[in-house]
Amino acid sequence: MKRCSQRQKLPALPALLALVVSITILVLGMISELAVAGAGSSGGGDVLRDDFNPWFIQNTKVVRYCIEVDAAHFHQDPATLHKLVEDGIQYWKAEFNQAYLPPINGSYLPDMVSFEPVRVATQTFQIIDCDSSEDIRFQFGILRKNQKIFIDDPHKVIAAAVREQYDTQSLRGRGFIYISPDSGPLQFQGDDLQTDFPWSLGGSGGALFRVIVHELGHVFGLQHRGDAGQIMAAGYPEFVLNKLRAPILAKTKSLPGYFAFNGELSDQLCQAKGFNSKFAEFFGIAEETKCFGISLAKDQVTVTIGSGSSVREVGKINLKPMPNYKTESVVTLYLPEDQRIFKVVSTYARILPGPARKTALIKGVFKGRNSTSERNLLLVMPPDNIRSDEIIESAINPISSWPSIGGVLDGEMILDLMEGF
Ligand SMILES: [Zn+2]
């Protein structure tokens, strides 16, 4: 079972800062601006100064992009491609609009004047013909000779976002997004992948849309993060193009939010092997219970067991009205020495926090239907994406998605009651 608690977490900012600084010293000179998705790629583990910066921040007002297609080997019509790119840009603009923006102030950087938070995806995006003046070039099935240094083996690469240039004064990048053709000599390959014209599957291009969104995420400074089903996971393009999954995902362009948190909580988890003893004891259910469900209405969660017509309520969780949030910057901005955008900068701290995700920490009390005892618990709910893509997966495997649930049992705090499922 995929669990949100297994997702990869970056260390908190001060720790991240130390990490970045130490890695920078270690690997200085090993330049890798690649964010390549594909089996056999290096995974992009190098953390190097401005390499992880967004291609643009708020001082860039207009971004020009162009689209080129190898129509012989890339099976999707140009009008649809234009629409998918446009929708991908809109997806991130809407999402970043909802992100939490950590303020930059004197307490963070003592030598720096207060400045508005780092923002991305704020630009106007303008489509132009490809004439080398573009900031982003979408290359559907096209890889130029001089670009092959970025992509060792095209057969192993579904897509890549490559920043070819970065102006360290204006904090502005330029590059291309490559999407593998679905036929011909450059086509990606892989045993479990849908190699049979995946880009035009389902008419609307839902699989292609997801890959475009992933690559655009890199343009906006997002790094790989999370399990395979999450938009920015390293294996997301492979996840999308999995033989079994691609035909399902291709049908829809609807994507869960990356920053958005809608607070919905309603789900059922069914497992043939039942539940672990701590979980069963906490909720007062039998270990061999097959299905467990939760559903939120106002500030109360109803807990049920059973499925179909035999669903039975076992208790309620009363939620404390105000959730707390844990925030985590998912975009960071390294300030090169010669940058001209930020007026005064500390001489030692050069990494600013950018847009952040919020995880809700909701306290509650569980009261069993047939019991007088009350048990304190904590629901940890990350933004929609972390859960929702796992729901997509349930279309293939009956895997459900959950917030993690911690609780107090026999005086002991258990951080994750479902641990070991
Ligand atoms: Zn990627």
Largest sheet: 9 strands, antiparallel
CATH homologous superfamily heading of the largest domain: Collagenase (Catalytic Domain)
Number of domains: 2
Mean pLDDT: 80
Helix content: 10-25%
- Could you say what the CATH architecture of the largest domain is? 3-Layer(aba) Sandwich
In angstroms, what is the radius of gyration?
23 Å
Question: Can you count the helices?
Answer: 7
**What is the N-to-C order of secondary-structure elements (H for helix, E for strand)?**
HEEHEEEEHHHEHEEEEEEEEHEE
User: Any ligands, ions or cofactors bound here, and which?
Assistant: zinc ion
The percent range for strand residues is 25-35%
Which segments are poorly predicted (pLDDT under 50) over 5 or more consecutive residues?
Answer: 1-47, 387-391, 394-401
Can you tell me the CATH topology of the largest domain?
Collagenase (Catalytic Domain)
End-to-end gap: 7 Å
Gross morphology is globular
Assign the CATH class of the largest domain.
Answer: Alpha Beta
Q: Which structural class best describes the helix and strand composition?
A: alpha+beta
Task: Give the number of DSSP strands.
Answer: 17
